[in-house]
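Pasting as-is:
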Amino acid sequence: MDFELNEQQKMYQEAIRGFSVAEMLPLVEQAERSEVFPVQLFNKLGDLGYLCVSYPAEYGAAGLGLTEHCITCEELGAVSHGIGGSIAVQSGVATSAIKDHGSEALRRDYLRPAIRGSNIAAFGLTEPNAGSDVAGMQTSATKNGGSYVINGSKTFITNGGICDFLTLAAYTDKSKGHRGISLFAVDKNAKGLTRSKLHKFCLRSGDMAEFAFNDCEVPRENLIGEEGRGFYYLMESLDSGRVGHAAIRVGTCRAVFEATLEYAKQRVQFARPIATFQANSMKLARMALDIDAARLMTYRAAWLSDLGRPYTKEASMAKLLASEVYQRVATEAMQLHGGAAVLEESAINRHYRDSYAGRVTEGTSEIQALIIARQLGIDAR
């Protein structure tokens, strides 16, 4: 196994890092204060081919692999977890089922514009009473002539307030349990659909909303793949999505560590840089260790995917580790920055808040541990 990126990957890494610093970084502070996602980034990313980079070239994407997707996520995450996470949803769970199972018409009308950045995508799975328990969802889709009529609600939907369409999970036959779940592409202007913005204490630059479906009509042609196969499509999407989210947290960890290391070397107390105190040096060493472990786990999962090998266990391991490392690193960074970190405008303060989200999004840390246990042959419940 080669631990080095190849030359093409290094060039891509340099390009996406340059974009993140030049185009994203100047927008972060305003997006955090206003809680408004800078939607112009989608067009810019699409024009440069940085959206959905792991998707086939035949759909207008770059035709690269999950490793390159991780490179994208890490560099975006190093600038902003909130913005990077929204972009990762566009390039992953919100569009991957259409890519893999959608009709050519759905790919034309929804996938290709999402890859270009002219349409923004969201992913509707979580409900007020159904998150980790996917089978507990209540949203239903009933056939009526040439349409499905959808009733129910979704919440905590990343990109929900700015999206042009939603990849929606709903029951077409609840009596079949998870085998009765189907996926649909739902246009933002669909009759009977309403949405409202949610306000968060973390990830403030990322958009989030809740949806209500009241006899919402969706054409039968907007069914993604086969009826009743939605749960399995979701599981496929979530593996790659978890690796991407792990990569975002590796990037955010890197940003926190670099800022903290520099501060600790410059901050003088008792006539010495605080980094030279043994207790602080050990904190910094452990931060570096944890980040490197999370990065290796994340790129190993991507490597397995690119080889076409199973990686469900490794995806959950990467997501679990990276999420918990981000929270530990952010907490230690707060301590090392001391009073400077409690200021509202402090980037470390922002990372401390954002680090919470990693343990509950894309499957909680507890759910990841259960998935890992099941992959080990343990009947964990």
